[in-house]
## 1
Amino acid sequence: MLNWLIGDKMKKLTADDLLRRYAKGERNFKNIDLSHEKLSNKNLNGIDLGNSNLKGVDFRGSNLSEALLDDTLLVGADLSNANLIGANLDGAILIRANLSNADLTNAHLVATRLNNAIARYTKFVNADLYVADLKNADLESADFSGADFHHADFRGANLNHAYIDNSVDNDYSEGAKFTYEGEGDGLIKTKKLEWHENTEGGWVDTGVDKAYVWEATYTGKEGRFNLIVFPMSLIDKNEEGWEYRIDEVIQPSGKVREQYDSAFDSTNKSYAPTAKVAMKWAEATLEDMLEKRRAKR
């Protein structure tokens, strides 16, 4: 139970010793000190390193699928290009660790600390990130398809080009905290569109000097449409929730004609609770509009 934290004595093991014993069939290596050892491009499938000190270990390109790494200290470890499919990293400390291009599909990361970690192009497909801490992590182009991150903390994280559809849109994101809902520049890619956050231009008709809005453009045979998602506080400072608008850009003149303006849930008598939900509703409305145009052809 976090022996590396409370000061219990751990047995120091070298990479050579571990590999030799692993080759003989041993898998249980709990509570050991492997700090700063070199274990890149090794096959360590199913190894149990739970509650161990793995600070600064080089695991680049290694196979750690189904590995037990719960409650481990992995500060500054290099896990880039590693296979961590199905690995258990619950409670692990991966502060400033490098997970770029790693595959954490179906991995367990409950209460894992990934703040300031680098996880560019990393796969978190169907991963369990419940209450995980990803503050200030570099998650550019990471794939969170189907991930569960109830109450996870993404504040300050770089989510540019991250794929988060099928995750934050559903019940698995309840309580999660995201910088991109009104706190910084970014880009959200869904299956249909790319949403860019505009934090520069204010809306002159609202009197707001700096408006946090999300914008996307659809261009197809049916026409060109601009989609905008914005907080209701831009219209009325006492209003909560998010609104969306869809405008058609008439070609070749370039004139804009409003097609739809609403994100009001008549059942619950409220606007969209988050920007991402408003995006989802806007995309559904756009798809309905496009289907009607296709049917007329």
Note: The chain has a mean pLDDT of 82.
## 2
Amino acid sequence: MQSFTWYCPITREDYKKLPNEEEALEGLRKEKVSPGDYAFPFPDSPKDISSPEMAEKYRKGPVGLLTILPSTPPAMGKSLFLWFIFILIAGIFTAYVSGRSLGKGRSDWGYAWVPVFGPLIGGVLGAYGYYLLGFEPAFLIGLHSEMVEVPF
């Protein structure tokens, strides 16, 4: 299904070519940016997120995320193999946990809500704990009322 969505017309507009791509690539080569994920603008500490300097950087733009991959030709064989191994291990683990919790030959559908809502509840509690530790979820960065004027 995932490979089907790659060719689906809906996803063709997900990525766009940079204007002046060669200049942008030359600038990244000049800076010798190593492979990894980058966010820009990026604060030096969580306290700097709400500073006037960061607000000005967000207003001026551009704001974005950038993933730099190793400089090799694209090859999906290794990634697909690792994905298959991951799915296999996750399936075995899920079957083991389900078997241990439900018991042999037992089909108690009263328990069926746990595998559905358990991860959702865990995700919400984890995000809240992350927020309590002083970190701000990435999707909220730049949405403070003092940083962005909402038009409505």
Note: Residues 142-152 have pLDDT under 50 and may be disordered.
## 3
Amino acid sequence: MDSEVVKTAHPSGTTPSNNLGQEGRRLPAAGIAADPNRIPLFLIAFVLTAAILLVYGPVKEFEFLDLDDTGYVTENVHVRTGLTWQNLGWAFTTSEMANWHPVTWLSHMADCQLFGLNAGAHHQTNVILHVVNTLVLLLLLSRMTGDLWKSAFVAALFALHPLHVESVAWISERKDLLSACFGFLAIYFYIPYARTKRSVSYVCSLCCFALSLMAKPMMVTLPFLLLLFDFWPLARIKPSSPWNRDRLRELTGLVKEKIPFFGLSVLSSIMTMLAQGWGGAIKPLETYPASVRFFNAIVAYIWYPIKTLWPRQLVAYYPHPGFGLGFTEIFGSLTVLVGISYLVVRYARQHPYLFVGWFSYLGMLVPVIGLVQVGSQGMADRYSYVPLIGLFLMAAWGIPELLAGLRHRKTLLWCGGILTLAVLSLLSARQVGYWRNSTVLFERALALTDGNARAHSCLGQARFQDGRIAEAIFHYRESIRIHPEYHVVHTNMAKALYAAGNIDGARYHLERSIRLYPKNPVANTNLAIILLADGDSETAIALLRKAVEDAPDKPKAREILAQTLLESGDPKEAEAHLRHALRYTSTPRDSRVMLARSLLAQHRPVEAIDLLTRQLERIP
């Protein structure tokens, strides 16, 4: 949207050194709102909040999904039991879900503490965070640039774009919202530091950055983003200055002041690589060679802007194209990528917002562009949550300048902006509906993509939970046909075949799953159950011990192992497993009864009686 303030020309296109905004307005002292009339800011904030709540209102009726929500919430014993000292310690030490993100774990625990497993309440927390992110983005942009209306347009695009639905409507992507929230706050506090060198602001910015990385390492390139903002709109780097020793000293100083930020980025990157390596999330070069990763990254860098302009056929999972990309697609994307990069560098002095917007988009995508391949997706809507802001900046500042001189410029800008936001709101509202449950979500994914093994697997899981075993087996078979090395689907296929009475088939797929991924506690536990039925308790015990080793806080494996040990004459080890399982089990009565049996087997009747008495007192 265009500003109604009369512009003051400046040769560099940046903020002059006398603390004037880029359009001639005197910027206020750090920490004070850029617009002395705060009423428009409050009205804009109110409208944006109302629009988000209207678009995302239906999520309060949505369910948990079979895509990661089980690992993050519904089947995670630490999260389900809420905020306890033990769970707090676990959050800061675990690499579960192939990530180190304690802030995300604490957020999910808080939801369970307050709302239990009410999926609608968890969804609404995501919506509230999206509102907060939008308002913080509005505030920081208006303070940095001095232009409320263009900042409002960027914030509105951020709030209502369909590509952002995945991050908001998917409970597991709480980490995306939290990372962005603290990342935006880090930038917000950086603004007064950049203008007045306030050390308190610097410390607050650094702390918020640390919290952002502890939610999700998406903002790991923030130090580079701050350097871009130093160029525009903060104007700490003068593009018109000649390259000499003084300018080099100036640039060196700006880099040096961000060394603590770079240090946190390096530390977070190391922690992330270790966690994802332990979790088996990082794919080897044998699966995705370097050339495949590079070509896919080039295409992805152009795919996101295309989807930004034409947000159609958005799905929850886009299979990696592998060697399927054609020369024309790769060469065309590379040409566009290089061409845009050349133009924004060429005209950086005249149009600094293009340079900052484009390179902030490229830089923010680096952690998820696929050069280090995590998972088997080629691209993902959620990866665009923060990077698209760079493209929105280019549009909000570039379109008004492009239309400069037109007779009805202001009318065109207002009408065009409102129409754009209205269309995006309608598209987002429709996209939100696809996230209602796993069935709707993955039926759409299969309708719009080919060779989508993950979608078949997740839809099979939804069918299995609905009791439609034959359909579940069909989708699992399709998933295995497309991606036979996907260990999760073999585990799920075994459960479906076991339910259908095909024990031999279930055993085959469990063995296959374990060969593909030996640290699979579910497969090891389920195979042990089959072996116990066959009378092979020795092998079953070995598998159960392996399951307990790989997932020490999963109570099911411990309970089965304890029962097997009791029957095998080892009550002491059974007692240890049962006492551990009691901290997390959803069936404490059965575990206490078994624990009493183990105590009796060790000739400790008084303790057994006391335990059973306390269990009887718990029965209403």
Note: The chain has 29 helices and two strands.
## 4
Amino acid sequence: MTTRQTDIDDPFRPLAFFEKWSLEVLLQIGLLVSLCVIGLNQLPNRIWDPSVERFTYVIGVLGIWRYGWWFTHLIRARVYGHLVYPRLASAAREMWDTGWRPRHMHFMMTTFREDRQITEHVIRGIVTQIREAGVPGTIWLGSGDIYDERLIEDHLRLIASDLDITLRIVRQNVPGKRIAISLVLRAMSRGDMRDDDLVTFMDGDFVIAPGSLKLCLPLFAADPELQALTTHEAVLVRNVWWMQAFLNMRFAQRHMVMQSHALSGRVLTLTGRMSVFRASHVMTNEFIRLLEADYLDNWLWGNFRFLSGDDKSTWYYMLMHGCKMLYVPDATGYTIEIVKGSPYTRMIENLRRWSGNMLRNGTRAIKLGPRKMPIFIWWCLVDQRIAMWTMLISPTLAVVAGIVVGIGYLETYLIYMILTRLIISIVFFGYSRRVDLNFIWILYVDQFMNASIKIFILWRLAQQKWANRGDQKSGFSSIGWPDRLRKWMANYMTVLSVCCLILVTVAYTQILYTPSFDIIHALLIH
């Protein structure tokens, strides 16, 4: 059940049906289901014990709600992937085949002391896109170190001497990815750019798959209302099998949900790995300033700037202006992750950064209201805030029920969790390259950890860390009593919110009985 070497060697090679759904995989699924059925028949079933029956109903209702929401996403994703997107792709492909090309290909890329092999893969991917299009191209490089500049210059001379490619280097004078991007965009706005030009934003560790941009760029010509799009992505992790499986599951989930969102003409993120914008937006001062100095005004932490999440800022700008956005499921690329230090710490830091970016941007996006976006997209943003609380209710109830009626309840609950996560995983297998039964436990761990981390970060929005970008930090200062007071208040609010969640849960299930006003009045009198 570990990641196979073929995933590392050739991430773009599609698998045949019987290679993906091999006999070994089917036997593993059959064995797991059989063990669960045997367990349900042989273990004492305490689920319907009268003393905890109410617990089971609450867990069941929450499960029906959450799985119903997943089913909604699945149906919408199928409609987009099999009905809506093929028509869009057909129109775009016809335009490309009949000779349409962008006037010029622009790549906005940032990098900082990236691994040599990764950078060379990235540059080869860009050169392949320009060669396929047969038009001039410019790489706008936001750089913080001469090492990257010389490496890219040398590799372009080696592999692209026959192409019309210009490398424009913009050396940043202040650290940070946001600053690098904003400086590049200002340089673009002073150059020979037109409003109808298309700009590909990408990270310095993202390798674009061959043929990806010829799928993306003509979509803008076929649909004048389209203002931005993003693509599918994968990741290759060196030597940490469980992290590879973890990220495979998350990207399979993303692949499905993004198609569901795109059915409404919007997405919930324009990933910094690779997204394409019309130049008419990215050259405006409003767009550049939002990227450069995006901030949040919080009741506890005051006014603070965002450290990471530049892709959320660009998305918020497009959402705020009512722009149409799409997801291109058959255009892809991959990131190569070289994990230094503890992979567990790295994953937790990633979850903390991703969740923090979602929370910092989600509130202001919700405040735009459903008039600024389709109602389904607005509700998806609201649901993100609700799900982090409801996810913790079921395990809380299961633990309490286990205390009340014994470990038999927890054993049955665990079997049901395996079966329900298996069903969701089978759905995700349809959007992943391989079938990996590790998805089952990873899905539950991911949901639980995400919910816990989000509640923790909810009261610490100013505290930001970007471990794999030079270990940048913000909001962790303890200088002076105001900073110490804020941290104490954040700890207090975290404990208070978790206690309230537990108390409301156990009170609703009538483990604890809330006193009536008559009882309170009698106690006060006597």
Note: Residues 1-8 have pLDDT under 50 and may be disordered.
